[in-house]
Amino acid sequence: MIFCLWLRKHRPDAGRLNIDKLKYMSEMKKGLLTVVLSVLFSVLAAYGVVKAATVNEGDNMTMTESGTVTKTVNLAQSDYPDLTYAAEAAVEAVVYVEVTVTQQYQMTDPFFRFFFGDEGPQTREQQGSGSGVIIRPDGYIVTNNHVVANATKVQVTLNNNKTYEAKVIGTDPATDVALIKIDAQGLPTLPFGDSDQLRLGEWVLAVGSPLGYQLRSTITAGIVSAKGRSMAHDPRENNGGIQIESFIQTDAAVNPGNSGGALVNKTGELVGINTAIVSQTGAYSGYSFAVPVNIVKKVVSDLIDFGSVKRAVLGISMSDLNEGLAKVLKYDSVDDMLKKMKLSSPEGVYIREVAKGSSADKAGLKEGDVIVAIDGTEVKSGSAVQVKVNSFHPGDKAKVKVIRDGKEKELEVTFQGSSTENGTVVGDGEIAFFGTTLKEASKETLEKFGLKKGVEVTSVGSGKMLEAGASEGMVITYVNDQPVGTPQDVLNIAKSAKRAVYIEGVTANGRKAFFGFSKE
Predict the structure, then answer these.
(1) What is the arithmetic mean of pLDDT over 136-162?
(2) Is 518 known to be catalytic?
(3) Which CATH class is domain 83-309?
(4) Full DSSP string of 176-204
(5) Which CATH superfamily is domain 425-518 in?
């Protein structure tokens, strides 16, 4: 107060000077702040321009006619799948499988027989190989049926180069799955994944031994190209008319020797067993197929628990709702067929025939019904029906939803088994016999082989006959040294045998065949 009064007394203009000074300093601060903000905005703008013009690694750039660069896909390095863990885990659990098959053949050269006589059947050994996947640490290994079919010796080599003799636990020709076992403990395994959750375009690895021993533990990568595939050229044989087909198609490179190897997802889970390729040359040409692991799990579980697959059967013949069915049923087109069947879409399976006394017959399914769901799962194709039914055991129950006369109807089915007892009539003049079906050989067939009588094997499924060496089209002439001319002859002699059944006949190729099996 005193100071201010002194200023006013002795310097009348001191207050005005002080105010001007404050105004000047305020304007200086505003100017400096403006400059700083301008520089900051300029830097940010320049950074944005540079960032927009910079091409990141993995960007897919295209240039228009006007010269403008357009970014169509932006994949940073971290966006690519890391398959190293899956590869390193899978390679330890995939094995090399070597098989020996002993074949019998008869010398048919008349010149040789004239001078040296008939020396009886000769034997020769053939070598083959494939892959397998360890699924339990106590030595259980899953592979393909066609890898170990008719094998007299099976050897397994692990990734650590240890070799073991293997025993065939069981096979399932219908799915081309087999289970073998080695005497070992603490083995590395691959966990089962869920093949139903695979998505189109998802990355997968194929692990196996293409082209034999030298290329063991080979890993290739690809994507899931399709699901639920059926193949026109199926390598599987002797399945008794039953086929469970719903293959995973991939473009991972697979060659002969990969059969039975692992198809693995990027998390290292087993999602399929590599089974076949489609090729004009016999080598990989872009298409490979694997049995989904959800099918494999059920088959393997049955083989371990029962020694054979306990397969449920619905008892129908069926067709997809496509152009072929429309022609058979004499409709003008698929649209015409759907309209007259009162269907909103071609998604479903048409029942062409219901076997008398079958699960379907007892549940009330009829010819002309269209199956759209089983146990709450939609089915859009015949292969989907097969896969779903295959997931059940005989005696299980399921709800089957059908469309009949344009209305939805739900029926409860109790599944029956696929095994047929010996002597059961399965067709016109045909009977079941240890997994095969037999009928009296026709006059034309007997003349073809120069025989007076015989019994023809019309189909071969899982059972003792298949394991012993029976093949479709062969004619049985003797059972336990007794001539046979009808299926009932074969059945009666086999029934009277105490321990074993010995079969003699002619194969479809005209060669003599000899084999036997135990009744126990």
Answers:
(1) 94
(2) no
(3) mainly beta
(4) TEEEEEES-SS-----B--GGG--TT-EE
(5) PDZ domain (2.30.42.10)
Distance CA 174, CA 338 (A): 32
248 neighbors 223 (Cβ within 8 angstroms)? no
Q: Is the per-residue pLDDT at 38 higher than 80?
A: no
Checking if the pLDDT of 146 tops 70, the result is yes
10 an active-site residue? no
Per annotation, catalytic residue among 217, 259, 418, 459: 259
Pick the CATH number of 312-417 from 3.40.50.1240, 2.30.42.10, 3.20.20.60, 3.40.30.10: 2.30.42.10
- Tell which wins on pLDDT, 338 or 211: 338
> Would 312-417 and 425-518 be classified into the same CATH topology?
yes
pLDDT in tens, 250-283: 999 998 899 999 999 999 999 999 998 887 777 7
Per the listing, tokens 């000077």 go with 17
Q: Among this protein's residues, is 418 annotated catalytic?
A: no
Catalytic: which of 129, 131, 146, 320?
Answer: 146
Mean pLDDT over the full length of the chain: 83
pTM of the model: 0.65
Comparing CA positions, the residue from 515, 518, 519 lying closest to residue 123 is 515
Q: Which of 129, 131, 172, 176 is catalytic?
A: 176
Query: Domain map of the chain by residue range?
Result: 2-53, 83-309, 312-417, 425-518
Q: What are phi and psi of 319, to 5 degrees?
A: -145, 150
Provide the 3-class DSSP secondary structure of residue 342: coil
Q: Tell me how far CA of residue 307 lies from CA of 250, 304, 436, in angstroms.
A: 31, 6, 18
Eight-state DSSP code of residue 21: H
Residue 2 has pLDDT above 70, yes or no: no
Q: In which residue are the tokens 């290739």 written?
A: 220
Q: What are 373's strand-pairing partners?
A: 378, 401
List the one residue out of 380, 317, 388, 329 whose CA is nearest residue 353. 317
Q: Phi/psi at 368 (nearest 5 deg)?
A: 100, -15
The CA-based dihedral angle spanning residues 133, 134, 136, 138, taken in that order and rounded to the nearest 10 degrees? 150
Q: What does the pLDDT look like over 381-425, one tens digit per residue?
A: 888 898 899 889 888 999 999 999 999 999 999 998 765 667 766
